[in-house]
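Deliverable D5.2: sample structural annotation.
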Amino acid sequence: MGEWVDEPVDHPMVRPSINAVAETYDLAVREEELATAESPLTGKKVNRFLHIAESAHDLVQQNLMQRKLGQNTGTCFQRCVGMDALNALHSVTYEIDEKHHTNYHKRFLDFVRMVQESNEVIGGAMTDTKGDRSKTPSEQVDPDMYTHVVDVDEKGVYVTGAKAHQTGCINSHWIIIMPTIRLTEDDVDYAIVGAFRADAPGIIYVYGRQSCDTRSMEGGDIDVGNEQYGGQEATIIMDRVFIPWKYVFMHREWEFASMLVERFTCYHRRSYVCKTGVGDVLIGAAGVIADYNGVPKVSHIRDKLVEMNHLNETIFGCGTSSSFMAQPLKSGVYLNNDMMAQVCKHNVTRFPYEIARSAQDIAGGLMVTLPAEQDFKDPEIGKILRKYYVGRKGVSVEDRSRILRLIENMTMGRNAVGYLTESMHGAGSPQAQRIQIQRQMQIGYKKNLAKRLAGINDDEETHENSEYFKHIFGLN
């Protein structure tokens, strides 16, 4: 908003997002079994956001932790991208080394060991600003539209570019930059993966604008809706940011960019079970306002709440089934089932909107026409407002206002950024999932199933893919 901020911790617009990240630390203390794991690198318990998945159970535990944090904060807690980037890089660095005899995997493990010991937050930066999307990175008029290496010396590499939509980056200790799309041989300078401190020289962060974000600066606590917790997105602008060789995990191996993107998105798309924790809060808020309005037993209200729960649990079921069907890769890390990850995220691009629609329906128009908190506090007009905005007997006007503002916050205010728009575009917009689903749907195999049962014999499609169930369900 045109203001240079020296200390984000003290800024009222930024502080709620810091509180949300803090909850990822607090949960690890309160619920160790859920939010920590024993690291084979350190032999100690570490925050699960920094753990490399050693089993399908580890991946399921990630999902359970994500849902709990969504329930606790009602917003995005900003660490899933970093967690999924670490798990994706574990296997990709191993396989680059296998082909090119590099030492990226050792560097990477040393880095993971370090951040586990220091218990730091990792921000994963994948999305470039992209410029003309019909052109590859090397074809852009301005080469900085995709983050790229601009110089190399004996100490490391220097990168320039920008990363957009960077959730929680200002609250991170480290940033890991990664390619955002499949690359060609002409794009070798864009094939860079590396880690640098979030306060490294040459970086500018521009905080993203969110709907209703200035309410946190108005002095009250009701109109904000969720005063304690919020999300955060920013643009990272990099001007010759230095990455030492020990923190470089890919350099010019352009053919591995697609592997990294696909594995990262496989992890990250099932990570969207975090939205079910936020959904739990919104469903609860809809139930509370129905009660406050005196209509909790009305049949269509009950039916809407049932539908909201049905949609929410469908997301959770797809995400956790993806984790449950995980299989080990060459490096030893477990990768969740890709098909179910795509279906999980594709449901997330739709179902939260339907859940939010029902919540708004139950809440009624007062959610967006309620007078300001300051008007209710006015000595003269406040008394009149409290007379006319009373609901069910025994419910204070203030409590009714608070729950209405929470629903507003989650469906069209500040935290709608993370629950709705980010549900649509995070980890790839809907078409990205549809492309992956199309690639994996094995239509030829399924047509053969139908033909066999229908008694049709032809030579058009005689090859049955015996690998189908291995592919979809991860069977050995």
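Annotation notes: The chain has a mean pLDDT of 95. The longest strand covers residues 156-167.
The annotation will be released with the project's public dataset once the embargo ends.
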